[in-house]
Amino acid sequence: MTETRTPTPDTGRTTAPAERRPDRAQLGLAAVLLLAGAYTVHDATTLNVGFADPVGPRVFPYVVGSVLVVLSVLLALAALRGDRPEAEAGEDVDLDQPSDWVTVAKLVGVLVFTIATLGLLGWAVSGALLFAGAAWSLGSTTLVRDVLVGTVLSVLSWYGFFVGLGIPLSPGILDGIL
Amino acid sequence: MDNLSLLGDGLLHALSPENLLYAALGVLLGTFVGVLPGIGPAMAVALLLPVTAGLEPTQAFIMFAGIYYGGMYGGSTTSILLNTPGESASVMTAIEGNKMAKKGRAAQALATAAIGSFIAGTIGTLGVVLFAPALASVAVDIGAPSYVAITVMSLVLVTAVLGSSKLRGFISLFLGLLIGLVGLDLNTGQPRLAFGTTQLADPLSVVVVAVGIFALGETLWVAAHLRRAPLRITPVGQPFLGREDWRRSWGPWLRGTALGFPFGAIPAGGAETPTFLSYLAEKKLTKHPEEFGEGAIEGVAGPEAANNASAAGTMVPLLALGLPVTATAAVMLAALQGYGITPGPQLMEDQPDLVWTLLASLLIGNTLLLVINLPLAPVWARLLRIPRPQLYAGILFFATLGAYATNQDAFDVFLLLVFGLLGLAMRRFGLPVLPLILGVILGPLMETKLREALTISDGSPSALWSEPLAVVVYVVIVLALVGPPLLRRLRGPRGPGTPGAVEREKELV
After folding, report:
1. Minimal Cα–Cα distance from A175 to chain B, Å?
2. What parts of the sequence cross the membrane (chain B) (predicted)?
3. Residues contacting residue B465 through CB under 8 Å, at least 6 positions apart
4. β-strand B191-192 against B183-184: which pairing, if any?
């Protein structure tokens, strides 16, 4: 899935004027990079330099942080000059459609729910809910079947890890039943 | 000859019935995951790491080897039957392979890909047997300064030479280096970038980072742009090759292997250049030029062989220097580190059994791949029909399971989500993934060696170019960075700043 290089979406079909607009969202990315770089440098100043260590723990974060700051400025300049990123294509990706951030938000919500309840419910329950919830977010209409499939997957994986690899995943509320 | 007898011992070691079972399991799992649309080999290995967690190192290696080759073969199946290359190295296969499939020759395309992969993988692995120990015995004498130089070279070349935007490549690389900073500083024991938490006092698990960026990032990106129209999948029968197909395939297989292996073995590898070169070479050499672009079997045989030979070639720097040059190799390195094994020149001397078993497992995995996958091709093709909501829900499920199982801490799932969102942003903003993963893995190694070098020299930076090898490597870096733009300028202006290779590739796609 890495480094896929396929033609940019703006070769062909799509109308030219919409594609020529500068991609302002890149400024947001530049801001995040700037913050990350600045925080890294700040974090490094809090470290104590040991003796007999000519490089010390600070140098690497200083370099990485300041280069990120420089890169964020370069990215902002490039974005303002109209440089557009080449969004990654893929087997199930259709870049001609507008982005569907609602589905992404639903998926993130399902994951946040899983993180919050994993300790309490245990893997067998959480995993089943995760599968069914994710399938629902992505537009599946067969909810009952998804819950069944998810339950089979999560219970099987629980036993697989417990019996096969000797790793007891959290049983949660099913403690004593599994 | 000595190497071959050692390899023989490795084979004996790896050939127990139990180990064969693990190899077969690895091949099946790897192909299964690799065939699934949306999953490339690197993601397949990352997703399957937890499965090997409870195994002995030997058995885990044998499974990895199967997963590695299985994942690659699965990827080519997807490109041929769906015309959607999962990774750049499969672009060429997709061009001719899918045309063949549309003409009703899917079985021949799959067969030439499988047999070509087998031949290239076998020759490539034998190449590793010859070169890796030699390189390792030279590399034992490589000092910290040269090691720093080689690390810089592989980071810079992967970032600057591959990919279309240098700026975005370097952003990705430095994000990776930043992620690699998290955790205890090795010399002074102070946590860096831990945000006051105890969980971040340890270095981030590469499994969580890789699975987050690859699997979750991809799922979220697909969710944002899910193709609603169903893809056309070509039906496939039993793969076989006719006499004419054999005659036209063997040359491309061998030439592809010869092109792929060296590109994999140098620390600026990656499979996309050799597959592209192999395609061009076959187009020049063929007696059927009219078929190119319309489904020429040479255009599948050559690039597929080049792809697999290059994958085998990446084992040379990985085993001999501890340097991964592709995302898949980076994930494999992380897996080995999980067993407390640090690949590099010392490994060959300290634990030769392990290395030879791994190499033997690669040969076995490769053979099993051919034996298992040719008959199973119609079954794999059916996997492409899994409805997308359930498919990606499944990927999400296994990604979460993988992140959670390593430490059984919901915090790791939170980190997975963070890296998933980062992966999503990278795909949206066109940041390449490979430099980030290499930065995460090589950054800490480079820092350790740099500090080692400067501690010996008592802080004088001249120590960094105190070894001849280091100087040579720095010269190579400068040449690689300055050379191409200079050549372009000498040849006169040709298009606004896009590297020629990218242009040509775009025309072909």
Report:
1. 15
2. 20-49, 109-132, 144-162, 167-184, 204-224, 318-342, 354-377, 389-407, 413-442, 463-483
3. B145, B149, B471, B474
4. antiparallel
Structure tokens at B503: 């242009």
B470 Ramachandran zone, left/alpha/beta (phi>0; psi -120 to 50): alpha
Asked if B401 reaches chain A (Cβ–Cβ under 8 Å), the answer is: yes
> Can you give the pLDDT at residue B480?
78
Q: Do the Cβ atoms of B188 and B448 come closer than 8 Å?
A: no
Give CA–CA dist B409/B429, Å, rounded: 31
Mutation choice for A interface testing from B156, B273, B404, B416 by most A CBs within 10 A: B404
Q: Is the Cβ of A143 closer than 8 Å to some Cβ of chain B?
A: no
**Whole-prediction pTM:** 0.81
Residue B227 CB: number of other CB atoms within 10 A? 18
Number of H helices, E strands in chain B: 22, 2
A127 and B389 in contact by Cβ < 8 A? no
pLDDT at B501 over 50: no
Which residue matches tokens 């990032």?
A: B217
Q: Which of A108-120 are b and which e, b meaning 16 or more Cβ less than 10 Å from the residue's Cβ?
A: bebbeebbebbee
The Cα–Cα gap between B155 and B176 comes to: 11
Nearest alpha carbon to residue A51 among B462, B461, B459: B459
pLDDT exceeds cutoff 60 at B506: no
| H helix intervals, chain A | 16-20, 25-45, 59-80, 101-121, 123-137, 143-159
Tokens of B122: 């076998």
Question: Tokens 């060429």 identify what position?
Answer: B92
* Helical residues (DSSP H) of B266-351, grouped into ranges: 272-285, 298-313, 315-321, 327-338, 345-350
CA distance B491 to chain A (A): 25
Domain map of chain B by residue range?
3-489
Burial label for B327, CB within 10 Å (0-12, 13-18, 19+), is: buried
Tell me A93's DSSP state.
B
Which tokens sit at A16? 């030219």
Give me the torsion for CA of B443, B155, B39, B15, rounded to 10°.
Answer: -80
pLDDT band at B424 (very low <50, low <70, confident <90, very high): very high
Structure tokens at A26: 């890149």
Angle at A73 between CA B177 and CA B445, to 5 degrees: 10
Distance CA A150, CA A130 (A): 8
